[in-house]
Amino acid sequence: MKIASIGANTPLHLSYRRAVSMDMGSHDYRRFEAKDRIDALVNALNDFQPGYIHAYATIASLLASEQQEGRLRIKPSTVVTSAEVLTDTARELIRQAWHIEPFNSYSTTEGALAIECAHRTGMHLFEDLGIFEVVDDHDCPVPDGMPGYKILFTNLYQYVQPVIRYEMSDMMTVTDAPCPCGCSFRRIVFMEGRNDDIITMVDARGKIVSIPPYFFHGPMAKLSRVREYQIIQKKDGLHFRIVLKQGTEKKTVAESIKKKMRREFKSYKLVCPDIYVVFVHRIVRDSSMMGKVKLVKKEM
Ligand SMILES: [Zn+2]
């Protein structure tokens, strides 16, 4: 099997390989950089012809668009996304491009790992590789089924650098309810993002309210002509950086974004900030974050 790892490394632990039905033999493993230009990545992947792709969610989604537009010509049997939010739009694009259902996964450099099973009922935590404690902002345990503020992770397989109750800012809801696949590992059923990704808004009564990133993903998913987006909260309002599909009229999309967001803020009884829409050729990938893109971030 030819494995293309774009941005994130593909985990190769036995239990992980079993979860994604990757055979235990040797593989032709090649790593590509997420911050490379998309046309260079497309050419490299056309040459390599991977059967397995592990990529940041925004990269997998871009590659799916490239496949549908005819520039990318590969036939992967498995696509695993990680590190960023896999939106419903991205999932649908991947389905349409390669007629397969992507596996969403969660992985950190400290060794915490989780991935969806074939039932897509959430991401099973690899509890044979680490101890996951979902806690609130005072480090008190949060019961299964309730959203946590952060997790404390203990790595059970790295012996060179011990990682014990390492604090990570991922806000997740974990359940121990049985999964039809029979795997007894608990599942992440909801991932709200990182607690430092939360932006704040003001409601109609002047109270400050936290807004998780997924607040924006629903309305943005309805904009079929948007290829990529990034939303930045600045002092003067919300800045939408938009990459459009070819041949799309900018004015219509800008108006549509403003209209949709105003409606969304109103339905949650929030004061709508000023909205600025900027059209760009590409969303710049942050090299200090290994080329990951934060779809929603603040720069205050
Ligand atoms: Zn399962």
Secondary-structure topology with pairs:
Layout: E1 2-6, H1 14-19, E2 28-32, H2 38-48, E3 52-56, H3 57-68, E4 78-82, H4 88-98, E5 103-107, E6 113-116, E7 123-125, E8 130-135, E9 150-155, E10 166-168, E11 170-175, E12 187-194, E13 199-202, E14 208-211, H5 214-221, E15 226-234, E16 237-244, H6 250-267, E17 275-279, E18 296-298
Helix pairs in contact: 3-4
Bound molecules: zinc ion (ZN).
Please tag this protein with its features.
300 residues, alpha/beta, Rossmann fold, Luciferase, domain 3, GMP Synthetase, Chain A, domain 3, 3 domains, nine-stranded mixed sheet, four-stranded mixed sheet, globular, binds zinc ion
Description:
By secondary structure, the chain is of the alpha/beta class. The protein has 3 domains: 2-106, Rossmann fold (3-Layer(aba) Sandwich); 122-192, Roll (Luciferase, domain 3), CATH 2.30.38; 199-298, 2-Layer Sandwich (GMP Synthetase, Chain A, domain 3). 22% of the residues lie in helices and 31% in strands. The chain has helices at residues 14-19, 38-48, 57-68, 88-98, 214-221, 250-267; strands at 2-6, 28-32, 52-56, 78-82, 103-107, 113-116, 123-125, 130-135, 150-155, 166-168, 170-175, 187-194, 199-202, 208-211, 226-234, 237-244, 275-279, 296-298. Strands 2-1-3-4-5-6-7-12-11 form a 9-stranded mixed sheet. The chain has a 4-stranded mixed sheet with strand order 17-16-15-18. Helix 3 packs across helix 4. The longest helix has 18 residues, at 250-267. The model has no long low-confidence stretch (mean pLDDT 90). The structure holds zinc ion. Residues 117, 119, 121, 124, 179, 181, 183 line the site of zinc ion.
